[in-house]
Amino acid sequence: MKSAAILLCCLLALEATSAAMSRKQEAAEINRRKHGQSALYKRPPSRVAPVATADEEDQDEDHTVSSSEVSEGCPEPNGYFPDAEQCDKYYDCQDGKPHEKLCPDGLVFNDFSPQHEKCDLPFGIDCSKRPKLQKPKPSAHCPRMHGYFGHEDPTNCNTFYYCVEGKFNMIKCPDGLVFSEKTGICNWPDEAQKTGCGSKELFNFTCPKVDESIAATHPRYPDAEDCQFFYVCINGETPRRSGCKLGQAFDESTGKCDWARKIPECKDWYKGVLTDAELDALENPPKPVKSANPSSRRKGARPRDVEPAEE
């Protein structure tokens, strides 16, 4: 009996020792895995460049060709882009491939947006960095097929031509204005700055010298030869010819326009041009006839039967 008890105690001790070793081994394994995983996350990134595969090298070569094509006239793969030297030439870019185009003669490419294909008149478009143009196709009064062009006679300051497809229309500026070849519109002589078409050459009028306080008011002076017109002296120095509407004349005493028959020195200005009846009609235009019921919005409505309200 004593030997059996001793044997049982030995077996229990061996089992406890084995269990304790197993727990130590398990803890060691967990600790090893934990440190191994942490080392993996803390590993510094490699500085060695990856080696490209054959397929990746082919893709890089294709991309290089595409970039080269885009750079020649096409800053972007798709859109409309100006030529670097010629203002009326541009490129229609599709998938990086440029298609060269020309605007109609006399027009230039407007590069305000790559998404819009637009040729426009050269006024207001900066062609200073690409000043070249296509060879002109002139016709009568039209140096180019499209555009606004001044009269051939340099002393003719207020006449110009509007050309479309090589065909012209002759247009005259209003009195006192000059055609500006820089802007393509009629403008004041001092702003048009056309040689031989300044205020002195056109009007034969010089603004009287005045002090600064009067000059600041832009004083007005009558046209000595035409009651309907007068001169405005900008800052007391630059004359601009302006006029009153039909039937009126400039009143020097007030500095304003009034009916000519009320101004003693101009009361007969329109004789032989307008009859008294026409002058009366201008001075006293008929008043518009008001509708009897202007607030009504149901004109023309037909009467209809209405059932009496229930009592």
From TrEMBL:
Keywords: Chitin-binding, Disulfide bond, Glycoprotein, Repeat, Signal. The keyword Translocase does not apply. Gene3D superfamilies: Chitin binding domain. One of its GO terms (cellular component) is extracellular region. Residues 1-19 form the signal peptide. One of its GO terms (molecular function) is chitin binding. Residues 24-76, 280-311 are annotated as: Disordered. Residues 302-311 have a biased composition (Basic and acidic residues). PROSITE patterns: CHIT_BIND_II (PS50940). The keyword Signal applies. InterPro entries: Chitin-bd_dom, Chitin-bd_dom_sf, Chitin_bind-dev_reg. Residues 71-129, 139-199, 204-268 form the Chitin-binding type-2 domain. This is Chitin-binding type-2 domain-containing protein.
